[in-house]
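Our preliminary data section would be incomplete without showing what the modeling component actually yields. Below, a chain of 280 amino acids is followed by its predicted structure, encoded as tokens that our downstream tools consume directly.
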Amino acid sequence: MVILTLTTDFGLSDGYVGAVRGAIVAHASGDIRLLDNTHQIPPQDVLAGACAVLQIARTFPDDTVHLCIVDPGVGSTRAGLVVRAWEQWFVAPDSGILHFILDLPDARVWRLHEPEATATEATTFAGRDWFARAAARLATGSPVDAIADAYTIDECARLNIPQPVFHEHRWVGQVLHTDRYGNIISTLPPPPAEARDTARVFVGEYLFGPIRAAYSEVGHNKPVATIGSLDTVEAALNGAAAARRFGVRRGQTFEILFPEPVAPPQWPPWQRLTGKSRPA
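Predicted structure:
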């Protein structure tokens, strides 16, 4: 049975999620297992949605279909996408929500066929009337060429995530995201293991110390830097919310200082990720 996951900004107080799930079941030609990743992405926060998609994808088995909907351009001429990467499928509006997936070395992309308009469908609910149907067909046996045409990554919408600056003694990136725990996720890849003990991690003017293996290596409520699940350097407080404590927002400077020279790393760091978290 094929797994189909849902990642949206629809929330849980209205019927939007149920309507999408109903459309999937109605248009599936075989058995399908629906799993909710999250529907609590802040409204129209494409970057948060992109982080959530990257966070889960490598844990699922081959041929999982991920339906990803954060769609500020709903009703416009923006494209719909199908992407194949990590031996999995991703169906989404071309909003930037697949930014990180499109960076993966094996990513291939198609443009979804436009849906046929009917008098009973709203132009404001493409998640139900277009993307859910396409994902259901893909998950239950339709070949991708039956629902989409070849497209190029260069034609896809991308998020504005500046490449960090890498000097021998200083890496300068920015805050990519803050999670619900208040952890501060950066755009900087992990430095070599031998450089972590002597590194100094700063978010703005705040020092979070060297890079450690676990939060528990510092006392309660103390600052700590770690390698997070997106394979980037993070800053946190052990048992508290660093982003809220220090008023940290996306785009702020996040830097690592080194006493000894360190070679520039691979960029972007999510290209280093593989399917290693998935079963063989």
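DSSP finds six helices and 15 strands in the chain. The mean pLDDT is 92. Preliminary results of this kind motivate Aim 1 of the renewal.
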